[in-house]
Structures are given as C-alpha cells and as structure tokens.
Amino acid sequence: MKNQFNQTKTFKKYFPMILGLYFGGLLFTSCGVQSEIYWTEGSSVDTSISPLQIPLYKLNKLILIKGEVRGESGYFIFDTGAPGLVLNEAHFEDYQLDPTRKVTGVNGQLHDAHILYVRNLKLGKVAFKQQTADVIDLSHIEKKRNVKILGLLGVDLFRGVELEIDLHKHILKIYKTDKEGNRLYANTPKYKSNQISMPFKYSGAFIELQAEINNKSYRIAFDTGSETLLLDKNLVNRDKIYTSLISSQSLLSTDGSKSGIEIRQLENIKIGLNLKKVTTLTTDFKKLRSHGINVDGLIGYDLMASGIVTINFKNRILQIQPYAKA
C-alpha cells in the first residue's frame, strides 16, 4: 500500500479521473452545508496560534487524505469539484433515500438520492461533526487504484475557512478566519511579494477562475480531484486552439461510465502563472452545461504542482505562491 503513494505512472497505464465532471444531479442538489471544523479530543495544539494541519498523500495525481467515519478507516479523495461530503456506497450500505432529490445512477436512470447521517468525520486531529453525506458507488476507483476509498471531501466542508495546499510538503493547512476572511492567528505569516492573487466565483460547486490561452480569456474551474487539465473539445475546435495529439482513450467518471477523449499537449495556459506543455484531455462538456455549469475547462493537479495554493472562501480569493525552480 505505502509504495503506491508518490509513484509516477504515465497516463497510458491508467484511466485519468476528472471527478467533478460526471456527478449528474448530485452537483446541483447536494445536501451538504457549510461545516464547522474541530480539533479532535486529546489534541495539545493551541489553535489560537497554529493552523490545523492534515497530511496529504499522492496516488499518481490523486490527492488523498487519511480518515475515519462510522467505524471505517481508509482514504478520502480531496475533491473541491464535489459539493460536500460524499461516501462510497461500497462501504456504507445503510443509507436512506431522499425523495426530494434525484441523481443519475450508473445506468443513466434517475433515482432518489442516497444520504447518510454522520456524527463525526475524523481526518487525523481534525474533525467535522453533524454531517449529512451523499452516498454514491466509488468501487470502480478502488479497483483501478487498489486503495480503500471511503469517499470524497468536497468544497462545502471548507467554505468557512482558508485552505493552504502544499504538495511539496504534503500538507493541507486550515486557517480559521473572521467574518472579513482575515486569519485568526497571532503569528500569521506575511504574504510574499511574488504571490499571485486571483478572484474567483462559484459555478455550481466549482471554483471558477479566469484563464488565458492564446491571449483569449476562458473560464476554468479549479477542481482538486482533476488529475489532468480538461478542456471542452467543442471550444478547442471553435477557437482553433492548437494542441498536439498524443492518443485517444477513455475517461472514467465517478458513476463508472467511460467517455471518449483525446489526450493532447497544450503549449501554454495562463492561470495566474504560465503553465507550459500541459497534458490536456478534450471531451464534450454538454453534460455539465445542461446543468447550468458554464465553464470551459477543469484544472487541479497541474495548478497545485506549480506552487502553494491558498483558497480564502469568504473573500473568494485564490492565491498561488510559485515553487522555486529546481
């Protein structure tokens, strides 16, 4: 198990997973609400001085967090493209039906949403209490990655705080903030001069940023569950965005279905900073747009790998502190 983390594999050896792309109705009718975050009992950390810290684990380009819920221990996928807490039906079968919400199943049919009440979600020394989770089948991800996946940690869990994602140190820091979004700490670190700030807005559950390709502006969602940059193929064709074709393959979605995609290389995209020679998947965004999510692409790992990413949900500001070049 341990030796799977931080391994490098080429995209040809596994199906890339863009977790937020095919949630169907779950994205837009989530039962998730803003959560309050607690230190677990027995912790000696002074939270008036120190932020909360959670270890991050990399499995290929998926970001995992070790956790415990309802007596089960395993890993959660850190996925800001998900609306809130999502549990894997493979491990939590005692769910209830919510007839007020409809979601799309593996067979494409609509059915009542599956929900489960969670008293306590533990992520190391950090806890979330009184959660209502959506329950979907994520067993296909477990089989592909050979790791126990308890579920997804979505954006609604963190809306009341500021997050700092540092992939080089494998740490997620959680800063408590006041009503204005200022950190509530005596020794708050100062922002560095080369830190890049970008305002964002929400498109459904997604954090929407402005990006630039060939001097033209596009709406790109920041989704920590996206292993690879994903662009709408219709937009790529319409705007004649040059990308070099690498291969054609299938995209594995959270409902277990596969969609035809092309794997390409984009020479440059600017999202606060310039990312060069980015492996890019192109596919049809029709399903997202049918639910009112009007973004042109998704990005996750490539942005996090370029620098420390800080998200202030109250001020709706995303910042990037570029990593020093090796």
TrEMBL record:
InterPro entries for the chain: Peptidase_aspartic_dom_sf (IPR021109), Retropepsin-like_bacterial (IPR034122)
Gene3D superfamilies: Acid Proteases
Protein name: Aspartyl protease
